[in-house]
Design brief:
By secondary structure, the chain is mainly α. The chain contains 6 helices and no strands. It has a domain of 78 residues. Helix 2 packs across helix 5, helix 3 crosses helix 4 and helix 4 crosses helix 5. The protein is flat and about 95 Å long. The relative contact order is 0.06.
């Protein structure tokens, strides 16, 4: 009787239908390759960056071009000056007001921001509790600040008092480096 029984062998896990999680749709990949090949090898994000962001070469030419465009602000930071020149160049090219061009460039920069600086999830305690919010109020202004603040749960509000003058750091360092 034992010769008629098949040996127990684990079957391979069932194959999922469709593309694996995180894999790109074939049409999306094809379109991305087409866009890059057709438009000088640049994606729309790269074109937006080329239009809106200031390159080192733009910084080098900023002062000379600022004089050409009549921007005469000697105290303005070089990056801001280069951004103003870029806005003036765009305004001249598309025939709009420099302020409108600046706003267009700012919108492009804002769109690119999420690709470079991703939003991080809210910090929480490893045990699942939310971290406490701490307000530092200048000496003598605590009463006024408590009247202006809108505290939804005053039962959890705790006034600690004045900090000693020799405190160097309150809270955690902003990075993982402790040096």
């Amino acid at each position: 009787m034992s010769q008629h029984l098949l040996p127990l062998v684990e079957s391979p896990p069932g194959r999922r239908r469709g593309r694996p999680p995180g894999a790109r749709n074939k049409r999306s990949s094809d379109l991305a390759r087409y866009v890059e090949a057709t438009f000088g090898g640049m994606t729309p994000g790269q074109q937006a960056a080329e239009l809106a962001l200031v390159r080192p070469a733009d910084l080098k030419k900023a002062k000379a071009l600022a004089v050409h465009f009549g921007i005469l602000e000697p105290e303005i930071p070089l990056l801001m000056l280069a951004m103003a020149v870029k806005a003036r160049q765009l305004a001249r090219a598309i025939g709009c007001d420099p302020k409108e061009a600046w706003l267009l460039l700012q919108k492009e920069r804002a769109e690119l921001l999420g690709y470079v600086h991703q939003k991080l999830p809210a910090a929480s305690d490893p045990k699942g509790k939310a971290l406490a919010t701490v307000f530092l109020v200048p000496e003598g202004e605590a009463a006024e600040a408590s009247q202006l603040a809108d505290f939804s749960d005053e039962a959890e509000l705790e006034f600690v008092g004045d900090l000693p003058a020799d405190v160097e750091q309150v809270g955690r360092p902003k990075s993982d480096e402790t040096a």
